[in-house]
């Protein structure tokens, strides 16, 4: 299965744990197969407890899979040369709080076998790139969660890896920090890095990824390139309409009375509408008659959030048990 440009390949990966006094079997991951090509970015999605972190730990040989095969750069993931080409950021990175960012990265650089001159050159560069140059000699005990996350990202880049595996890389960052890290990840893609990361921020996945794999209860429920999964629908359109304040309710009622028009978002006088494409001429006429303004008009495109909710979000009953999947046996 592994081709020359395959960075990562999973074949029917499965992981079962034994939990509790009686050693009850819990299947955390079941029959997951995927391929990540060189230079691609793949978003690994799913609700909490769906098996994302377990899969990542198997890829990194932190735990062993129960069944299936993993190929990392065409080799077994236990291969030291293959693992040296990977940069990893766990979901909750932990560092000794008496160390400074410079000391953490110097220690990690030694583990990678980087010589002193290389560490001396790369450490300040990476800390500056992550916005930590002002704090490179401060003890981590005074850092916020977002700053610790930046230290974690910096250490993952220290060896200039070909593959970056990030478990919730945007967790704990403020809006500005998220924007900066998102831009950094996009820049790393342009540099030819391959990205494999999980995130609950679906808009970031849409921005950064070529493809996604959505898990639910350890199983793949949707997989493929975003361009294929989120197709434009020629039969449906979306419109953004700004209504006049003096006749807001009347104009709103008139637009919603059109056949097939659905209100999907309302922000004051601005409405986002979904409608059949053949109703667009009637909508534009109604907008003119209502003295409203048509701000945007485009073909409807399913969002990743809609796909995620459709495939991997289920109702939770009053006793805390998740309902079965639609069409599946009880």
Key features of this structure:
single chain; 11 helices; six-stranded mixed β-sheet; disordered C terminus; 2 domains; globular; 32% helix; 330 residues; Rossmann fold; four-stranded antiparallel β-sheet; Alpha-Beta Plaits; alpha/beta
Question: What do you see in this structure?
Answer:
This protein is an alpha/beta fold and 330 residues long. The chain folds into two domains: 6-229, P-loop containing nucleotide triphosphate hydrolases (Rossmann fold); 233-301, Alpha-Beta Plaits. 32% of the residues lie in helices and 30% in strands. It has eleven helices and 13 strands. Strands 5-6-7-3-8-9 form a six-stranded mixed β-sheet, sandwiched between helices. The protein has a four-stranded antiparallel β-sheet with strand order 11-12-10-13. It has a three-stranded antiparallel β-sheet with strand order 2-1-4. The longest helix has 16 residues, at 175-190. The protein is globular. Residues 315-321 and 323-330 have low confidence and may be disordered.
Query: What are the segments in which pLDDT stays under 50 over at least 5 consecutive residues?
Result: 315-321, 323-330
Query: How many distinct folded domains?
Result: 2
Q: What's the CATH H-level homologous superfamily of the largest domain?
A: P-loop containing nucleotide triphosphate hydrolases
Number of helices: 11
Major sheet summary line: 6 strands, mixed
Report how far the terminal alpha carbons are from each other: 35 Å
Number of strands: 13
Average pLDDT works out at 86
CATH topology heading of the largest domain: Rossmann fold
Q: Strand-and-helix sequence, N→C?
A: EEEHEHEHHHEHEHEEHEHEEHEH
CATH class of the largest domain: Alpha Beta
Computed CA radius of gyration, to the nearest angstrom? 24 Å
* Structural class designation: alpha/beta
What would the principal axes of the Cα set say about the shape? globular
- Side-by-side strand order of the widest sheet: 5-6-7-3-8-9
- The percentage helix is 25-40%
Beta-strand residue fraction: 25-35%
Label the CATH architecture of the largest domain. 3-Layer(aba) Sandwich
């Amino acid at each position: 299965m592994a081709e020359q440009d395959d960075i990562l390949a999973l074949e029917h990966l499965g992981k079962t744990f034994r939990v509790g006094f009686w050693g009850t079997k819990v299947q955390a991951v079941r029959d997951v197969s995927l391929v990540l090509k060189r230079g691609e970015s793949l978003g690994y999605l799913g609700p909490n407890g769906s098996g994302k972190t377990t899969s990542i730990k198997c890829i990194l040989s932190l735990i062993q899979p129960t069944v299936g095969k993993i190929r990392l750069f065409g080799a077994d993931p236990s291969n030291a040369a293959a693992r040296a080409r990977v940069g990893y950021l766990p979901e909750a990175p932990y560092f000794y709080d008496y160390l400074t960012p410079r000391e953490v990265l110097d220690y990690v650089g030694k583990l990678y076998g980087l010589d002193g001159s290389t560490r001396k050159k790369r450490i300040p560069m990476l800390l500056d790139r992550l916005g930590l140059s002002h704090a490179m000699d401060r003890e981590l005990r005074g850092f916020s969660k977002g700053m610790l996350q930046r230290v974690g990202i910096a250490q993952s880049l220290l060896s200039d890896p070909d593959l970056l595996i990030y478990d919730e890389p945007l967790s704990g960052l403020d809006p500005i920090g998220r924007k900066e890290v998102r831009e950094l990840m996009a820049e790393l893609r342009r540099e030819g890095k391959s990205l494999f990361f999980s995130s609950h921020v679906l808009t970031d996945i849409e921005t950064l990824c070529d493809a996604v794999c959505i898990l639910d209860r350890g199983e793949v429920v949707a997989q493929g390139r975003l361009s294929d999964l989120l197709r434009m629908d020629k039969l449906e359109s979306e419109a953004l309409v700004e209504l006049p304040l003096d006749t807001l309710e009347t104009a709103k009622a008139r637009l919603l009375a059109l056949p097939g028009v659905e209100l999907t978002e309302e922000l004051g006088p601005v409405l986002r509408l979904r409608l059949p494409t053949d109703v667009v001429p009637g909508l534009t006429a109604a907008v003119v008659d209502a003295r409203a303004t048509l701000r945007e008009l485009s073909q409807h495109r399913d969002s990743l959030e809609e796909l995620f909710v459709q495939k991997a979000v289920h109702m939770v009953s009053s006793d805390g048990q998740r309902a079965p999947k639609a069409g599946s046996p009880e």
